[in-house]
Amino acid sequence: MADRMISFREYGDPASPGIVLVHGGAAHGGWWHETAAVLADGFHVIVPDLSGHGDSEHSTSYGFENWAREVLACAQLVTGGGAAVLVGHSLGGLICLRAAARDPRIRSVVVVESEIRPFSDEELAPWLRNVNAPARAWPKSDDLLARFSLFDQVLAVDQSIVETIARQAMANGPRGWSWKVDRRTFGAARLEPHEVQALSVPVAIIRGEFGRMSSDIADDVANRVGGDVRIEVVSDAGHHVMLDQPAQMAALLRSHLVQNG
Predict the structure, then answer these.
(1) What is the rounded CA–CA span in Å between residue 225 and residue 202?
(2) pLDDT digits (tens, 9 = 90+) for 82-117
(3) What is 8-133+182-260's CATH superfamily?
(4) Domain locations in the chain?
(5) Given this model, what pLDDT does residue 206 score?
(6) Taking a C-beta distance cutoff of 8 angstroms, is the pair 12, 44 a contact?
(7) What values do phi and psi take at 110, rounded to 5?
(8) Which residues touch 83 (CB under 8 Å, ≥6 apart)?
């Protein structure tokens, strides 16, 4: 991006069909590593850190328009022309829907566990509290690691994977160890149902059996984007489907990519 540095991971053969995997809020591209490594056999995969997350630069302002532009820039990298498949988890799914509405060259979109519904002030309060305050720092990396937990975890996840993504989210600065994410992103990470636009490209929805994207939310999103939307439910998975059931997630995405990529 011309105005900010966006870090990304790259997998697979650049000559293969392109796919962009987009992480959720307060996360980073490393959350997709297990899935991306499997999809690298047959696909060219780009996994960005959105601005304000991971190793990408922080921005003066955040929002779906800026994040969508970052995703579309990554789509150019995997195809040379933007005809990529976009896959987004949680916040990332909302961004992918916005990106596809802005660029008709996107081939298809997969939305994973994106909770598109109105949020009350009470629900948002914990996320918005102290958004502009300096991030707390800890003297040792293990002190910060001990505070890491998966949002709304309902299933046991391989702890080596959890520790890896946690350590990738940490930075050591003059004050000590802190999370890399810019907390000002929390105030920008909301999309109301009426903002979901109809799309002319194929859309698939993947939700976890015990996740936060209910069947009602999935049906509502499907109706709003229009067309023949395929909805898949991953059994024994919560909100973090790609961590709870990485093999099932990779298989579903591969099936979608073969049909629509």
Answers:
(1) 9
(2) 589 999 999 999 999 999 999 988 999 999 999 877
(3) Alpha/Beta hydrolase fold, catalytic domain (3.40.50.1820)
(4) 8-133+182-260
(5) 98
(6) yes
(7) -120, 120
(8) 18, 75, 105, 106, 107
